[in-house]
Amino acid sequence: MGGKIGGDSLRLSSEKLRFLEERAWAALRDSALPERRNVFLSFAYEDIDEVNLLRGQARTENSNLEFNDWSVSEPFNSENAEYIRRGIRERIRQASVTLAYVSEHTAQSKWVDWEIRESIALGKGVIAVYKGDTPPTRLPAACHEFNVKVVPWNQQEIARAIEDAAMQ
């Protein structure tokens, strides 16, 4: 009778050990994945279609690009610039990185330039992303002044740039 009890407890222990090993391997696998970053997307409204495509790619489960979007998806219903700045500033505070989508429209956007400057003032990493073969000929002044890294729209490059910017 005593041997049977010992055998049962040993079998339970090996089952428990196997369960713990599986959990440990799962934790190691998960730790190898990059951390999902909170990202504020800065862009000129004329580029909303491209930005929505970027947002969609970040939500796709087969994507290397993963982030939580903390940008403003609905425009602030106000003409009061300071009210708008406060709302955007709060979104930037909640993010670890600002990703500025740059195009031919962006250099003229006072808001994109301000969002880059505000992000840097708040200690956030900033990167700029462009679509196509070459970056736009004109970028927001803050990109030049603060030597913002500009990367092509490539999931792996964007993911790497976000991670690098978050570690700054």
Structure write-up:
The protein starts with a helix and ends with a helix. The radius of gyration is 23 Å and the shape is elongated. It is 51% helix and 14% strand. It folds into two domains: 1-33; 35-166, Toll/interleukin-1 receptor homology (TIR) domain (Rossmann fold, 3-Layer(aba) Sandwich), CATH 3.40.50.10140. With 168 residues, it is of the alpha/beta class. 28% of the residues are buried. The chain has a five-stranded parallel sheet with strand order 2-1-3-4-5, with helices on both faces. The model has no long low-confidence stretch (mean pLDDT 81). The longest helix has 31 residues, at 2-32.
Q: Number of domains in the coordinates?
A: 2
The beta-strand count equals 5
The top-level CATH class of the largest domain is Alpha Beta
CATH superfamily grouping of the largest domain: Toll/interleukin-1 receptor homology (TIR) domain
Please identify, by name, the CATH architecture of the largest domain: 3-Layer(aba) Sandwich
Q: How much helical structure, as a percent, in the residues?
A: 40-55%
Unreliable segments of 5+ consecutive residues = none
